[in-house]
Amino acid sequence: MISLKNIDSLSDDNLEELGFSWHTDSDTTKYINNQLVNVTQDEAEAYYEAGNEIYDMFVEAAEYVIENDLFFELGIPFNLIEMIKKSWENDVHWHIYGRFDLAGGLDGEPIKLIEFNADTPTALFETALLQWALLKENSMNEDKQFNNVYDAIKENFKRLITLDEDTELFNERYDGWKILFSSVEGDNEEEATTRLLQQMATDAGFNTSFEYLNNVRFDEEGVFDADENQYEYWFKLYPWEDIGSSEPELATTLNSIMQNQKAIILNPAYTLLFQSKGIMKIMYDLFVDSPYLLQTSFEPLDGVKQVEKTVFGREGANTKIIDANGKVLEQTDGEYGNYKKVYQEYVEFNKDSDGAKYQAGLFFAYESCGLSFRKGSEILNNMSKFVGHVIK
User: Fold this and answer.
1) Are residues 385 and 325 in the same domain?
2) What is the pTM for the complete model shown?
């Protein structure tokens, strides 16, 4: 059973002053939990080490997928394959940030990978900013958390220029290149997240602008905002798989832009390999002895409790929990049912005294850099709650 600390909540007015408008769920309950998860220093260090090792396994598995042409197995749209290969071959296509979803890690339970939100992860605003505000509001030492997300991503933006070298070299190598940040108009959470990333890049030293996705112009010569300013980098908070399946003309144009070296797209196309839950089957085959991996297959597992997921999907949609005899215990509907399925060994999440379950979210930007939690029931969905943490 995990340990929790009761805290005073931030008021809606205070949250909105911070730019956080999605504080109340559709059932009128508060999205930000009024408790913190107590985490020991040893547990925080274990999460840090796990994230670094897991990322290395994703990299090796992605290389294996590319070398063996396993894109179909991962459900990758065919019109994105060339962009994935192109971005993988050249280090200038730098992965800015992602978020691991993990079970365990508390109360002696082993850390297990659930999936990797590598392309368009949510909960960035909450993890990077609100956790600090929660500790400050409750007169607690703001440094008593595993949370360097803001600075880690800022430094990772610098690596677009310095690559794997010292980021202090940024100023002498930067030549005025601009980044355009885009999200879909009308989604407050995605816009706030995108603008936060824009601020991180600005703090890193880049020239930046924001433009809603529908106002961005693309052609073979590059990426342009509504005022016809051209950009060397384009960051989109819009999933690659949606570009491939729902925006085929945009996919074709982006491919031309990449081939002509007119712009670099962030997060890179290869992050779709990480995003596909199918890669965890490849990882399990390659690293069967890893303590962090659950048995995963493209076919139902024999004789074990398991979770059926779609290779692409969000907020727990189109998920089934199946017992060892094949009986469906719980399931959710959703819009991702046409995607290929994967089957992952079931693992319990950490629980509190009321039986609520907690999934750890571990942000990664060059290295593991920040921890937070989602609280919910058996299948975590868009009604789950954000829970901060404190190192006790």
Assistant:
1) no
2) 0.97
Identify the pLDDT of residue 231. 98
Q: How many CA atoms lie within 13 A of 114 on its CB side?
A: 25
3-state DSSP call for residue 72?
A: helix
Answer yes or no: is pLDDT of 351 > 90: yes
What's the average model confidence in pLDDT over 136-152? 95
- According to DSSP, the residues that pair with 178 across neighbouring strands are 207
Phi, psi at 245, each rounded to 5° = -95, -35
Q: Are residues 17 and 160 in the same domain?
A: yes
Residue 266 lies in a domain: yes
> Which tokens in the block code for residue 82?
């060339």
Q: What angle do CA 363, 364, 365 make, to 5 degrees?
A: 125
User: Is residue 66 scored above 90 in pLDDT?
Assistant: yes
Domain containing 216 equals: 4-275+350-391
Report d(CA 222, CA 257) in Å as an integer. Answer: 6
| The residue to which tokens 């060339």 are assigned | 82
Tally Cβ neighbours within 10 Å of residue 213: 16
Average pLDDT of the segment spanning 235-253: 96
Flag whether 42 is in a domain: yes
pLDDT at residue 27, rounded to an integer: 87
DSSP E strand boundaries for 104-172? 112-117
